[in-house]
Structure formats: C-alpha cells, structure tokens
Amino acid sequence: MIVITGAAGGLGRAVTARISRDHEVLALARTQLQLETMEVHGAVCDVTSESSVIDAFSGLSNVSAVVHLVGGYTGGTPIWNTDLADLERMYSLNLRSAFLVIRQAARTLRARTNPGSIVCVGSVSGRTGAKGHGPYAATKAAVHSLVRSAAADLKSEGIRVNAVLPGMIATPANLAAMPNADHSQWVTPEQIADTIAWLISDASSGVTGTCIEVASRGYTP
To answer: Model's pTM, two decimal places?
Structure first.
C-alpha cells in the first residue's frame, strides 16, 4: 500500500492516478467531502495535527511507501512587508506537516521487514531563494534539510527518503489564476507524478537523500 497525503489536490489527483495504476493506494485528505470525489480508498487526516497523523497511520501494516504532497504557498511580498502570520502559516503547512508525516511514516516502515520509501514535495525556490517569497522559500528549504537528515537516519534500515522540487505546476488552480502566463513553461502534475512513481519503485533502490528538480525552463516560483 502507498499512502498519499494531499491526494485530493491538483497535484495529488495526478499522483494518485499514476500510483494507483501499480499499487493499492490510501488517499489522505483534509475533509470527507474531498475524499468522496475520488475513486480510491481514503481517510480524513489533518497533516498539521500530530494526533490526526498518528490516527491515520494507526493499524497500517502493509505500507511500502508514503508520499507527502501537502504544502502551502504565499508570496509576492518583500520581507519588510511580510506578516509574521505568513511565516507561521508556511511553517505549519510545509515544515510541520512534513515532520509529522515523515516521522510517522518512519515508525510505520521500520516495523516492516522489507525496504520502504518516503517522498516529499519541496520547491526549486527552497534551493535558490526567490524575490518576495521569504517564508515559502525558507520553509521549503527546511523541508529539503529534513529529508536529507531523515534519509541519513533511516539508510541503514533500508528506508529511502527523497524529495521532488517542482517549479510552477500547471494545476487547474494555477492555470485559472494566471491565464495569461506562458503555460508551456510550466511543469505538469503528470511529470511530477512520474518522478514520484520512479522514486518509490525498485528502479531507484540506490537513491536516498536526494532533492530532484522537476522544473520548467522558465521557472517562476
């Protein structure tokens, strides 16, 4: 079984569709209403809540991989005009959620006798920084560091931890919000889904602690 957080989002639906071609999937979403629009087995989970994440993984014994897609975005404001609330929101959605899910995924996978895999979503701007994107870029950079540290912790146990770093994603919401942008320069959810499918497969069995950019040529964070 592959557990996918944020499965009902714009990226999540593409990843869930791709992964479910080869694996049984448990889709985690914030509300029951979101799950009702999907055709896979699902459960409600608020990945910013410690108790909710623990409950979602409770009793799962056949998990082979966990894909964490939940994250948040805010940007366009220079640091001197950025509210503390923006940083706290990015911390909760990006870093706190990644920590809680990676920790519980590690606990679940360590109970298995077979190797496992954890994949998170970072961001190119978390590697490079970006004008007007301080809280977002900073918390995504922290996610990248968390992934590398978790990979080091788990390597000897055969559990791999990696991240994909997208540029601008051509989700329905992003396309609608920026109709006049050059969408040909954006990375598609399907491209990201294919990379994640590879990272949880045996074909990438030697890959851990990596942050793989899946970005368009004309990246804008």
So the answer is: 0.92
